Give the backbone structure.
Amino acid sequence: MSVCILCLGRAYKYTDGRTKVPLRGGAEVATNARRINGFISKRAIILLFACIILALGLTARLFYLQVLRYDYYESIVLNNVSATTTVSASRGVITDRNGVQLASNYTVYRIFIAPREIENEDQKTLICQGLSDILGVSVEKIREQADMSYYADRTIKKNVEEEQASAVKEFIADNKLSRQIYVEPSTKRYYPYNDLAAQVIGFVSTDGGMLGIEKRYDKYLTGTPGRYITARDAWGKSMTSKYETYVEGQDGYTVETTLDVKIQGALDAQLEKTYNESKATNRVTGIVLDVNTGGVLAMGTYPSFDLNNPYEIDDSILELFDGYEEDANQQRVLENDNYSNYAEVVYDFKNIKEQYSPDSDEYSEAYMNLLYSTWKNKSVSELYEPGSTFKVITTSMALEENLITPDTEFTCTTPYVVEGIKIRCHKYGGHGTNKFRWLLQQSCNPTLIQIAQLVGREKFYNYFEAFGYTSQTGIDLPAESSPIYHNFSGFNAVELATYSFGQTFKISPIRQITGVSTVANGGYLITPHIVSRVVDGNGNPVYNANEEPQRQVVSTEVCRTIWDILEEGVATDGGAKNTYVPGYKIAAKTGTSEVRDVLDDNGNSFLRVGSTVAFAPADDPQIACIIVCDEPMTSQIYGAYVAAPYVAAVMEEVLPYIGVERQWSDEERAKMNTTVRDYVGAPVANAITNMKNLGIKYNIVGNGEEVTYQAPAGGSAFNKSSGTVTLYSGDAVPNRYITVPNLEGLSASGANQRIVNAGLNPVITGATNSVSDATALVVSQEPAAGSSVLYGSTVTVTLRFIGDTDA
Ligand SMILES: [Zn+2]
């Protein structure tokens, strides 16, 4: 509104007819007409000028604002009255190497109401009751929102699933409430395999990727949200479409990993098994690696957590200490104040849980500590002393330098003294004099010290660096730990000796399997990686993993020699014979190292890390597998026991899966388990012919024409050399029950004999290599001793070599 300057000094009428003009300060001046005339003419001219100047200025200003800066001010106005609705970008999916989704999204809905659109009380009641019925939110809560009558957007429920959202849409349509109730789609992260590779895949919080791949590849996965910008009038109603724009978003990219769901499943199952059997207080971890490309096929840590509920702790974790009060060694774990590992964190939480309520600070602090520890990817973020598995590396140095051959003889002198420090061989009394190949298979410490001394301090250190042991692997996962090792100036005779068998330096399990893979792939240091490529929405790669080796460290010929020595040890009497898998050539080395930073009251280390690294097939290695069992608490603490059999089980499942065929020796064929055919319903004569052709021993009970029952049942595991199939026919029915004998601690042949004598069918599994008959013992049986089973039923025993002390 423009104002005339003449009106500024408003004229008042006096009640007596005079006019008063208010002046500054409120003084009043009475005037007479004569004087006024001259005065007005002068004053009017001045005012007129002022008026013109001001009017011109105003016009110019208005021209500037309304014409020249029109767009600018319109945009400001629009910003003030417009509403931006974010259309969240779909986060990129994470797949395994076959395209199986490991992390994906599904659509959920937010249901909200626009209280200011609600027309009357009846409509409000209808909305509150209707939404409450569908969504399960109380009528009172919905009414609280509906009563906020100024608002255009009050959330009633988030993360609503498809079914409820559809019901709400129907309710809206039926009652013509499209201006009052809204259903807004959004996406929710979903992990179809729950706890599979949880620490590796990671999860997402409101700030983006929290762990693992979700964190490391967040920038590719996030995408850019789209935006609807809608202008609103003073009452919040949308204005014409002229004022509506849509800024298109960009969905996240697909991250293709090298993981394989099937291989990961095989590894996870064994990690869980050895954790439960060894009661490893600092958790177990394992990796399966493609030794040629460096692609991680599987990586796991147990105990784990569910990626769909990452803030929940599984109750089974708290069972870690069940039975500890009965064991002095386990008691020491709990009593040691310097103990800052997983056991401590679990123990703290367990105690806090008993003393404090869940809403206390103490509780939440202990809870978060346990969560963070459980989220940690042990294979990448935690260090250990590798122990004897490192002997593979020491050996390759000496062979590369042509200092030894597999047949060079060494003498195990125990204790072996280095600069006054006594270093004992794990074998009481020592290994005597023998060929290097045998001494390596037996994991003799004094032999490896002598080898390292031949290599010499400087060359050993150079190889140590060249194999990558002084740096991170560069794996594309967050929080990789750096190795802890001596500077060259601190790397003296004692360190040379202890490094030779993998002690007094610390590395991560991913570092160790990468080192051993260098020997497995013919001498090339590779870069382990978890993502092979990232592709955009059009299928174009925007990132590719570098699978080129960093360098060749040792010759392929040297590697072949080591493959041969290790495989021979597994197939015969080497310390790693628990990794034997019938029909496959496995090269393996076990290790058991001391935990040096946790000592008991007498200053002695009492905790161990048992591990095994293997690669196969030993004549053309494709994959390597490591399992690290950190601080086992059972009587068997050695890598040969707590890791090797589980590595074998992984290999047995993975090798056929990746297309490596079994090749049986005659000896293996004789021990091989097959499955029994199902003869029930077949003519007895045909069954007999078939069994004769297959070389199966049999019994026939009854004299009918047709097989009515058989033991073992069709499809059961069966051993041709020691088993018998019993067929029933006619009126004969199986009615003879046998009590299963106790087989624990027996050798393979002893157990076999006892099972056959009882009229049952033996199936021997576990350690079954060429020397197992003599030294492997039954560690478990199924069914349990004392069970009552039908004559001819199968009894499965698992053998394991006990007593290999691979320090
Ligand atoms: Zn020895």
Notes: Residues 1-34 have pLDDT under 50 and may be disordered. The pocket of zinc ion is lined by residues 412, 414, 425, 427, 430-431, 444-446 (CB under 6 Å). The radius of gyration is 40 Å. The first helix runs from residue 33 to 68.
